[in-house]
């Protein structure tokens, strides 16, 4: 249905609902403040999560490094004989 087929009532309804010449409604500051607070809290949660998970990964990496160092030391001792010369055969 094009505009030539629309009756005067349909045109009036369209103009009344889509008229942009009225006063612009400004959003109140309340919702913006709530959005800012929610964004701040979520940002802090993400930051804390990254710090805790990163710290956990660092601790695990240090533990694995220490384990690897102990294994390498044990294998070096096994290669050199591992004895102090006090063995009596």
From TrEMBL:
It is a single-pass membrane protein. Signal peptide: none annotated. InterPro entries: Reprimo_fam. It is found in: Membrane. It comes from Sciurus carolinensis (Eastern gray squirrel). GO terms for cellular component: membrane. Keywords: Membrane, Transmembrane, Transmembrane helix. Its main location: membrane. This is Small integral membrane protein 41. The chain crosses the membrane at residues 33-54.
């Amino acid at each position: 249905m094009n505009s030539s087929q629309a009756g005067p009532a349909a045109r009036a309804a369209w103009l009344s609902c889509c008229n942009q010449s009225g006063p612009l409604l400004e959003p109140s500051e309340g919702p913006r403040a709530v959005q800012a607070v929610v964004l701040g809290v979520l940002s802090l949660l993400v930051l804390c999560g990254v710090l805790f998970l990163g710290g956990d990964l660092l601790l695990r990496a240090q533990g694995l490094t220490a384990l690897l160092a102990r294994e390498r030391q044990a294998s070096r001792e096994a290669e050199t004989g591992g004895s102090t010369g006090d063995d009596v055969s």
